[in-house]
Amino acid sequence: QVQLVESGGGLVQPGGSLRLSCAASGFTFGNYVMRWYRQAPEKERELVAFISPTGGTKNFAESVKGRFTISRDNAKNTVYLQMNGLKPEDTAVYYCGVTVFGQNYGGQGTQVTVSS
Q1: How do residues 71-98 score in pLDDT, each as one tens digit?
Q2: How far apart are the first and last CA of the chain?
Q3: Which of 56, 58, 105, 113 could be 2's S-S partner, Cβ–Cβ 3.0 to 4.6 Å?
Q4: Neighbours of 11 (CB within 10 A)
Q5: Distance between CA atoms of 3 and 78, rounded to whole angstroms?
């Protein structure tokens, strides 16, 4: 079955960096668009970034453009989210996601807290 396991979250000061990872299994990873979402308390889930199967196309939410990058390693079935210049408003649970045969899947998420 499809499994997504996020890691790499934590507490970081404003201006700091974190690199999130999402290890995928149960599907042919290299064939699918991968997405990163986030959800802050009492806020709607936000699509942060997505990356095409080959990594040639990437897109970002306006709120993170120029600060976050997304990448993938199809040999390792892993997608990454590099977050630089973190701000308190980036505090959220971050999830990776994939749609396989019309079914949406997500992991358990990893908490990112940006605070001094």
Answers
A1: 999 999 999 999 999 999 999 999 999 9
A2: 40
A3: 105
A4: 12
A5: 11
CB 19 within 8 A of CB 82: yes
Residue given tokens 């949406």 in the structure block? 104
Please, what is the Cα angle at 90 between 45 and 4, to 5 degrees? 55
Distance in angstroms (rounded) separating the CA atoms of residues 98 and 75 = 17
- Name the nearest CA neighbour of 78 among 101, 94, 55: 55
Q: Using CA atoms, how far apart are residues 32 and 90, in angstroms rounded to an integer?
A: 26
- The predicted-structure confidence for 22-39, as pLDDT tens digits, reads as follows 999 999 999 999 999 999
